[in-house]
């Protein structure tokens, strides 16, 4: 099931939302507008903030095992999420890259990360998410988390990806990747798309052709 949504009046909902296991993390004060949509996808809404920010999709990354937050997150924010979620919640001790949602894309089989992460940081990410990790780019751009959306069935990747990048990302995530756009031609697909294994939320400008394509890519019903 693919449903259209707005967050804070914006169709760039991937900036604000993060799926972590069976939860949909939302900024505080917006959960009521998304409750019906989350129910249809089988997700439970949890309101949160990270570094006092509403941009949960930009700052966090998750699979069904763990949710990773930047080290800027407060102890109160970490404790709040640990009390509400049944997935592990960790602050990633990295000093340079803090927009984890832009810099990492992950599912339950693998993760692709920004090339600037150190070997030590790759080891930490692999251990916390419980998956193999590979550095990558899409169309030569290092913010892979903005250009790829994956669930455990498939992957939608920006049309800027070349064949070598697409194969490497597909092999690491363990799913087939298809190219496509969101929100009527936007190549940064994460900006307008939040997905789980049962469905997805997309921005209102997303066209019927884009919906059909992403349904095929993520292997969910349109």
TrEMBL record:
SUPFAM superfamilies: Pentein. One of its GO terms (molecular function) is ribosome binding. SMART domains: eIF6 (SM00654). Keywords: Initiation factor, Protein biosynthesis. InterPro entries: eIF6. It holds the Pfam family eIF-6. It comes from the Archaea. The keyword Protein biosynthesis applies. GO terms for biological process: assembly of large subunit precursor of preribosome; cytosolic ribosome assembly; maturation of 5.8S rRNA; maturation of LSU-rRNA. GO terms for cellular component: cytosol. The keyword Transmembrane helix does not apply. NCBIfam families: eIF-6 (TIGR00323), PRK04046.3-2 (NF003134). Binds to the 50S ribosomal subunit and prevents its association with the 30S ribosomal subunit to form the 70S initiation complex. Belongs to the eIF-6 family. This is Translation initiation factor 6. The gene is eif6.
């Amino acid at each position: 099931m693919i449903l259209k949504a707005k967050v804070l009046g914006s169709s760039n909902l991937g900036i604000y939302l993060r799926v972590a296991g069976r939860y949909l993390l939302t900024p505080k004060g917006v959960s009521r507008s998304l409750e019906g949509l989350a129910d249809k996808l089988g997700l439970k809404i949890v309101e949160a903030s990270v570094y006092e920010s509403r941009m949960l999709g930009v700052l966090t990354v998750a699979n069904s095992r763990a949710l990773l937050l930047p080290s800027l997150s407060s102890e109160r924010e970490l404790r709040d999420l640990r009390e509400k979620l049944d997935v592990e919640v960790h602050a990633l001790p990295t000093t340079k890259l803090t927009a984890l949602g832009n810099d990492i894309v992950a599912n339950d089989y693998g993760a692709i990360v920004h090339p600037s992460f150190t070997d030590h940081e790759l080891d930490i990410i692999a251990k916390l998410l419980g998956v193999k990790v590979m550095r990558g780019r899409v169309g030569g751009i290092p913010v892979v988390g903005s250009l790829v959306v994956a669930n455990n069935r498939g992957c939608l990747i920006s049309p800027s990806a070349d064949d070598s990048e697409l194969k490497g990302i597909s092999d690491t995530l363990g799913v087939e990747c298809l190219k496509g756009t969101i929100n009527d031609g936007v190549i940064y697909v994460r900006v307008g798309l939040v997905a789980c294994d049962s469905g997805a939320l997309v921005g209102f400008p997303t066209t019927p052709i884009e919906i059909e394509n992403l349904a095929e890519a993520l292997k969910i019903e349109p």
